[in-house]
Structures are given as structure tokens and as C-alpha cells.
Design a protein that fits this description.
Layout (H helix, E strand, L loop, with lengths): L1 H41 L17 H8 L2 H18 L2 H24 L6 H22 L6 H4 L2 H22 L2 H26 L1
Helix pairs in contact: 1-7, 2-3, 3-4, 4-5, 5-7
Length: about 200
């Protein structure tokens, strides 16, 4: 009976994490698409996409550097990675970039909940920074001998990101009830749109 209850709780956590993952991805895509609409029509210019099919990443370097949250990656690359990378080797620059990203996320979560987050988010980014550093070292050591992307295929990279996300990243969001807060904000946004539409209909 106890095992059954724990199994249901674990299943609910995984299911909620999946929903939260898709909600985050689709929400960001939708919001950024709406934001990009204004400069497209008013200034006749295109904004760079925020994501570039991250589920097709063949390595952590490709996922974090070129496919996931491209704008934030570009800012961190210019503000943190390059200044440190010019003075030292790439590895300290990579770790410093992920530490700054962890601090940024902790501040965002604090703003969302007004409660101090746990160290799970920090561990998530430190783990990925460490694994990405190992990937860079292996690529340089095995250059011309072995292609890492052939040993570690894309689906395994995405599976690693998802597994560590379900382990360290999403549980913190669920503890902060980010899913419920997001639903409330969507409901308020829908009501706002209904109010605008009904007001326009009355005027017409």
C-alpha cells in the first residue's frame, strides 16, 4: 500500500514536470512570437528566434550554446564567457557562465515566490557546467581520433537534459507552485482579452 502511494506520487511528479516543461517551452515561444510581431510590422525587422529546435541537439555544447534560450546564451557569452575566456582557459569561463545563470534563476524564483529557493537549481546548472566542460575537454583530446557526437547521439543528450531537469530543476518550480501561478496568469490574460473584445464590440 505504501509502495503504491509512493509510486502514484512519483508518477504525478513526473507527469507534472512534463506538463511544466511543455508549458515553459510553448509559453516562451508564444510570448516571444507576440513580441516579435511589433517590430516586424512597425519597424519592418525580424528578431532572432529564442529557440532553434533544441530537441535536435547533438551535444550539450550545441544545446546550451546554439539552440536553447539563444538571446540569454548570447548575452552570457558576451558578458561572462568571453572576458574570462580571454584571460584563462575555456573551462573556468564555462563554469563561471553557468554559475551566473544559476544566480539569475535563483533571483527569478525568489521574485516569483518571495521565498528562498533550495540549492537544486544551483546544482542543476553546476552539473551541466561540469558536464559541458568534460565534453569540451574530450572533444579536444580526441580531435581527429573520435567524434564525440557519434559516441553520444543527440537523443542521449536530450534525455540527459530532461532527466536532470526532472531531478533538479522542475521539482523546485513545482514546490513554488509555478504551474498554478502560470494558470492564474493565463486566465487573467484571457479575461483581459475578453474585456477588450467585448468593449470593441459594444463601441461598434
Amino acid at each position: 500500500m505504501i509502495v503504491s502511494v509512493h509510486f502514484k506520487e512519483s508518477l504525478n511528479l513526473v507527469f507534472s514536470s512534463f506538463l511544466l516543461l511543455f508549458q515553459m517551452y510553448l509559453s516562451l515561444e508564444l510570448v516571444l512570437a507576440l513580441v516579435a510581431t511589433f517590430p516586424r510590422f512597425l519597424l519592418v525587422m525580424e528578431l532572432a528566434p529564442e529557440f532553434d529546435e533544441p530537441y535536435l541537439s547533438s551535444s550539450l555544447q550545441e544545446f546550451w550554446g546554439r539552440r536553447w534560450n539563444i538571446v540569454a546564451s548570447s548575452v552570457l557569452h558576451s558578458a561572462v564567457y568571453l572576458p574570462i575566456g580571454r584571460k584563462w582557459t575555456p573551462i573556468p569561463a564555462v563554469m563561471a557562465t553557468f554559475i551566473v545563470s544559476a544566480v539569475m534563476h535563483k533571483l527569478i524564483f525568489f521574485y516569483m515566490s518571495r521565498t528562498g529557493p533550495t540549492w537544486r537549481i544551483t546544482c542543476f546548472f553546476l552539473l551541466h557546467g561540469l558536464c559541458l566542460s568534460i565534453e569540451i575537454v574530450l572533444k579536444k583530446a580526441l580531435a581527429g581520433v573520435l567524434d564525440i557526437s557519434e559516441v553520444i547521439p543527440g537523443p542521449l543528450t536530450v534525455a540527459f537534459v530532461l532527466r536532470t531537469g526532472f531531478w533538479l530543476f522542475f521539482p523546485e518550480l513545482l514546490c513554488l507552485k509555478a504551474d498554478g501561478r502560470a494558470i492564474e496568469k493565463y486566465a487573467a490574460f484571457v479575461e483581459f482579452l475578453k474585456h477588450i473584445v467585448s468593449a470593441n464590440l459594444i463601441r461598434s
